[in-house]
Amino acid sequence: MILDKVNMPDDLKKLTTNELNTLADEIRSLIIKKVNTTGGHLGPNLGIVETTIAIHYVFDCPKDKVVFDVSHQCYPHKILTGRKEGFTNPEKYNVFTGYTAPEESACDLFKVGHTSTSASLATGVAKARDLTGGKENVIALIGDGSLSGGEAYEGLNNAAVLNSNIIIVVNDNDMSIAENAGGLYQNLKLLRDTKGKAELNFFKSLGFEYYYEDNGNDVQSMIEAFKKVKDTNKPTVLHVKTLKGCGLKAAETDKETHHYILAGTLDNTGGGSAAASVESYNSITTDFILDKASKDGSVVAITPATPGAYGFTKDFRKKLGHQYTDVGIAEEHAIAYASALAKSGARPILSVLSSFIQRTYDQLSQDLCLNTSPITLLIHWGAISGADSTHLGSFDIPLISNIPNMVYLAPTNKEEYIAMLEWSMGQNEHPVGIRVPFGAVKSQGVSDFTDYSKINRYKLTQTGEKIAIIGAGNFYHLGMRTAEEIERKLGFKPTVINPLFLTGVDCDMLNSLKNSHNVVITLEDGCLAGGFGEKISRFYGNSDMKVLNFGGKKEFTDRVPVQELYQRYHLTPELIIEDVLKLIPANV
Amino acid sequence: MILDKVNMPDDLKKLTTNELNTLADEIRSLIIKKVNTTGGHLGPNLGIVETTIAIHYVFDCPKDKVVFDVSHQCYPHKILTGRKEGFTNPEKYNVFTGYTAPEESACDLFKVGHTSTSASLATGVAKARDLTGGKENVIALIGDGSLSGGEAYEGLNNAAVLNSNIIIVVNDNDMSIAENAGGLYQNLKLLRDTKGKAELNFFKSLGFEYYYEDNGNDVQSMIEAFKKVKDTNKPTVLHVKTLKGCGLKAAETDKETHHYILAGTLDNTGGGSAAASVESYNSITTDFILDKASKDGSVVAITPATPGAYGFTKDFRKKLGHQYTDVGIAEEHAIAYASALAKSGARPILSVLSSFIQRTYDQLSQDLCLNTSPITLLIHWGAISGADSTHLGSFDIPLISNIPNMVYLAPTNKEEYIAMLEWSMGQNEHPVGIRVPFGAVKSQGVSDFTDYSKINRYKLTQTGEKIAIIGAGNFYHLGMRTAEEIERKLGFKPTVINPLFLTGVDCDMLNSLKNSHNVVITLEDGCLAGGFGEKISRFYGNSDMKVLNFGGKKEFTDRVPVQELYQRYHLTPELIIEDVLKLIPANV
Q1: What backbone torsions phi and psi does residue B357 show, to the nearest 5 degrees?
Q2: Which of 121-150 (B) contact A at CB < 8 A?
Q3: Mean pLDDT (chain A, rounded)
Q4: Which of A8, A407, A448, A493 fits A464 for a cystine, CB–CB 3.0-4.6 Å?
Q5: Considering only CA atoms, which of B120, B538, B172 is closest in space to residue A344?
Q6: Of A154, A541, A554, which is closest to B333 when you measure between CB atoms?
Q7: A404/B554 touch (CB, cutoff 8 Å), yes or no
Q8: How far apart are CA A216 and CA A195, in angstroms?
Q9: B588 — pLDDT class (breaks 50, 70, 90)
């Protein structure tokens, strides 16, 4: 293997063109094998192999600085910067993160997992260089899909006036995770079609020097392209045409499916397609939307660029037709757009991942809640999880639930979820968020007839004594298990409450608990700081009630197995009961 | 007065060209007089008079829909849509808000006070029209300054592919609040210089039909321009050159000073310039930055477009030279840029208003805190206030303090503020926010030698018994006044604590209070939900300590006098003591 000779970028510089080409093939094979074993980002990494080799051939990392946007496409970079074992040795497949990580290598500048950030970050790196007298190149590598995000534009607009060296490499594979959305993509197509020669040029309009390279999957062409821009003293865009999934037929043909794959997908042993036949909260959601949309022409489903995460398949999107909008990686626009749709008599329903709703605080506050627009906002993957530190689902409750006028609901099973969807889509008073349950579908067996227009009215599901357990959303079931365990171990039946609402306190119910309870336990599947339980603690602050809040700590965890986090945060019936007994050992 | 004949937009359509011109003069005079009496946005409104008259002459509001970006420039619109009394009758000067307000008129679609939102909102309005079979025109009116915000770009990128009627009117007066920042502005200049004929065109690159009008302050030219784009079936940009401050010499000449003026400014009775000689937290900040920057070439002061709010005068900016960056209305970029500067060895210090830091949650979380970049972030105007509902400073504590790794400090006087600035700018471990005290400068008389590297260590400032008052930031002084009042009325000395840190709990100190205290009172100058006090309540949940949290309610208030809010939220010593006595009437 040529790769045997390559540990760090400097090793590349000794290779011949033929060896570099062979190296590209080797890297591609390693990525396919590794990703098909562990799951991961496939298409973006296959497309960027040659560009990455050329970067490290032409530039001198870590002296020269490369900032990877979202870093979906950093696997070849990792292989070439001291971390190839993570790809050659199956036992080390999980040693390195799927994103750039400064703790792994001096060639990685930032932890990045949210998109559209590279131009901004690189502008800061370049400005620091200018202030401290450095001379190195600063390179941002951004995909065409990431250009739809507002932060990317803000970064480009500022990079363009830096008046010194900064090189924005636009890796244009004509795809976001799904198809690209937005007017910019017509211009990128025009530029590709004219090999960069069209006068109408988004990048030039912002003031960049502009270069185009049509052979982004040819090492030698890319080396020459980078040589042209190296050591430039002007903000420069190098627009490179690449093929997403390059070198793997299936990934080249069906780019969306192969953007990120589960383990075993390429051998048809992956869980992806089989799961479709099993009922999931995704299938419940898509069934609901199709039904609503067919009955009401003003219903619009909206996603910011990750339709696959919600089960919004190509078939589903096709069925919805003009009643579906993918706004691109533009969560801010998604919220403002939905707010305006709702205010203008349409029925928007918007799906966003917990981790990405973070991109919209101001839009939730100003565009949406200040205008009390009745949208339905579905927050997916909101849960304490073993995810990468860049994709945690622990912060949506603190983020959303402290914004005035918002109603944030936490269903605990499918019947509640459907009833909440129905209520939300039929009302005109409130911006409504629903935290879609995480995990396997649970059922209460009968339909839910709760009147959700009675805001902040909690549901008492088990009347008991001494201890009351308020289990929110996903953790209602943990609450029930804890209640059973208390009854078994301590010999009395505690009260159990399903709060339904995360945005407020049911004063009547909480006051009524004071008569026959000494302890209230709150459970939430997310970060405690700023979250649901603290509101209950505040409520009881002036009373004799003891309150114990259970949930996640305020911290960024990184691929920590969820069971380990449950132990750390005392999120099992046994550990909860231990804490309660510590509090009042003799007799609650 | 011609205006006597005009109450609603339809009345305009009966006027001759001469009458319309006279009307423009009348409106201009009314705005100057009113704004000079009450304070308000002057320059933007003077520049947009003729455009607004022409919009209402050509289109049919409220059937046709106009979305005002940030709505700094909606005064002429208000005058022409049933609200002229708010400008003709001094007694009604304060009846209407300074922004669009749907509750005032069917011609106002949204409450808007944060910028860069109109293209997104208008896209939603237009899509709803298309879904429900409407035919009306949808118009977004956006200033050139607002185009630097990411949400504006996301909106434009999506508006461009709407495939039906949407008209983006770009009101280009070649100014943001201060000078424009970013590469886009070179393109706008090129377009103005070529009267819209240059091939290189930002708007066309996004896919818009494009029209240019050079005479934005001529009613007849604007009428003709709007007639050309009315009823278009394609996403269209009408780029209009206007003069900010048009018709008032002082405002035309010094555009920045006259963007927003205080009452009396035009008669030289305004507070603006006189204030400069008095020490303020702004002057302390600018003195500190100038000193640091002169000693360390890597210090960079950053603002997102509102330098005046922080006392960053032209002279100050000139002194800093390349050590100052105004990034435009691009708060997201500002945070990422600062994070990268800090990671690359520079010393960024970034000033943002409390209300606008809302635009950066994800950047604070991902670009900044996940990377633990040691920036200094100054949050100004963080306080419960009588502001407009779009500019409240009540939400920065819930927003910032629940993000992992962040250190958010709340100085209570100038010595603490300076010590915190010094510490933050000299350390390499933490992203640090400082909530700049609001109001007149307070002094403790001696320098502050606190070691702020001891994170979450609170300061005990008065040792007492029974009641402990934790007064954060601005409200530390309310805490002291309350303590004095308790001593006077109840005959014992309560403990007083200055927490200094908003992002964590001093467990040792809070535990030590348990011995000789029954009640802890927390005071914070902001929204309670998700804020500081709730963390104290959670801490004491398993103990006998009673906790009372005082602060703002989770609500959008709109120009409610601050004293009225203090009454509403029980933020006076008398009302606090009342609540304490209700809790334990006999004997604390």
Answers
A1: -65, -20
A2: 121-125, 127-132, 148-150
A3: 95
A4: A493
A5: B120
A6: A154
A7: yes
A8: 12
A9: very low
Tell me which chain B residue has its CA closest to the CA of residue A527.
Answer: B402
- Give the mean pLDDT of A448-467: 98
CA gap A401, B528 in Å, rounded: 12
Say whether B389 and A401 touch across the interface (CB within 8 A): no
Cα-Cα-Cα-Cα dihedral sign, residues B228, B230, B236, B242: positive
Residue of A nearest to B367 (CA): A112
- Block residue for tokens 């400069």: B276
Chain B partners of A555 at a C-beta cutoff of 8 Å?
404
Q: Confidence band (pLDDT; 50, 70, 90) for A270?
A: low
- Interface touch B297/A130, C-beta < 8 Å: no
pLDDT at residue A276, as a whole number? 52
Region A171-188: mean pLDDT is 88
- Percent of chain B at pLDDT exceeding 90: 93
What residues form DSSP beta bridges with A377?
A350, A433
* pTM for the structure as a whole: 0.96
- Look at residues A53, A63, A66, A62 and name the one whose alpha carbon lies nearest to residue A16: A53
Grouping H, G, I as helix, E, B as strand and the rest as coil, residue A347 is strand
Residue B153 near residue A150 (C-beta atoms within 8 A): yes
Query: What percent of chain A is predicted at pLDDT more than 90?
Result: 93
CB spacing of B121 vs A337 below 8 angstroms:
yes
Q: Encode pLDDT of B528-554 as tens digits.
A: 999 999 999 999 999 999 999 999 999
Please indicate if any CB of chain B lies within 8 Å of the CB of A109.
yes
ipTM beyond cut 0.85: yes
Task: Record the tokens describing residue B197, joined without a space.
Answer: 């004929």
Of A160, A341, A537, the CB nearest to B537: A537
From chain B, the residues in CB contact with A467 under 8 A are: none
Chain A, window 7-36: residues with a beta carbon less than 8 angstroms from a chain B beta carbon: none
- Give backbone dihedrals phi and psi of A552, rounded to 5 degrees, phi first: -85, 155
The size of chain B, in residues, is 588
How many C-alpha atoms does A242 have within 13 Å on its Cβ side? 36
